Amino acid sequence: MGRRILPTLKKTIFSILTLLALALALALALALAAAQANTAPGDSEARLKALLDGAADARSAALQYSDFVRAFRARHQNNVSTYTIYNQYLDAVGVRRISNYLETEDAACHGVAHGLGRAIGERVPDLREAMSVCGSTCTYGCVHGVFKRYFVDKAADEPDHSHHQHNAANADKPDQFAYDRFAAEALAACREDSRTVDGFYRGNCAHAVGHAFGSLEADIDNAQRACDMFDGEEMRYYCATGVFMERGGEIRRGLFDKGVTRSDKQRLAVEYCGRFEQHAGACLRFVAHAISTREEADGFRALCRDLAGAARGGCFNALGFLTRTFTAKNLDVFTQVCSGATQHDRSACVIGLLLTKPNQRHRKSLEQACENVGDEPLTSLCKDQLQRNYYQVGNPAMQQLLRVAQEDDHAQVVD
What we know:
single chain, disordered C terminus, mainly alpha
């Protein structure tokens, strides 16, 4: 009988020990969670402060900063990605020093700040925290880099995503990228103007998500169609600007053979972007060249007049944008630049010229341009657009421009 009892007793003792081990593991897990809950906020604040200020002591930081500047200039002047430089020096030098350097050296540092945002996003997985580290650096170029990194990582979690990513090896495969897993989060992030970064509007958020679409989707048509997930013409348009900014260099390399004249490049750009209809203007902003003479403005305007419907409105809107620097330095050319066959053409051009980001470097000069319009409806539109900001959703003139374009109608934008 003792032999029969012994196995049963062993099993009972084993069961009791197993339960005790599980209970101990659960207690340890709860204690760890409680400890993390109590220490995480302070740790997070300290981590973000170190990233902003740099981890090095003052003397070491100064030396590292000098090394950063030399390395950055060498790559930037040769049009080579600066992301690796940010990644190398960010922890020692800090975000504040790097941001100050970028904005001091180049007021138009938006594009080059994307890499900084990417490096920050890799260190700070929480989207809002990463945005707060960037702030408004380089007209939110840093935040755009954070968004792109964040949503590309989200998409990478897709089990079947590998064949959709934008690279040469899979460019010939069907690209029906599965957006559903992170679309809801993207829409939630862009539901309202940011409370984390002042001046980061909903349209700015849509533009940043467009960068992610442009990076993830091999087929550009599919990438810009993905922007249809947003409600409203403005949000879809701003998303498309992110797609075309992301892929603009690639498009230009594919369109422009070596030795092609500047005027032919503009013609090819208009032909290519015109097929995107309502988003033709979004495309032309990043494919066509900036316009710097009256003759170039006349030539581009003639190309726009050969288009119809949505593409025509977008082309005239791009005309205003592409001549912004030239017009700001030569205010007397305003009426010539935005002359057109219809009120819709002229209005589209004025919106492209005057609707700028809050700290756009030519904004003050352009305020004087409104006095040279010579047309009361356009003068009113000009002044109205100066009171608004690019990416700020709820602009009636922009809504009307996109709506009229969508309806394939040359109705007037202003009465």
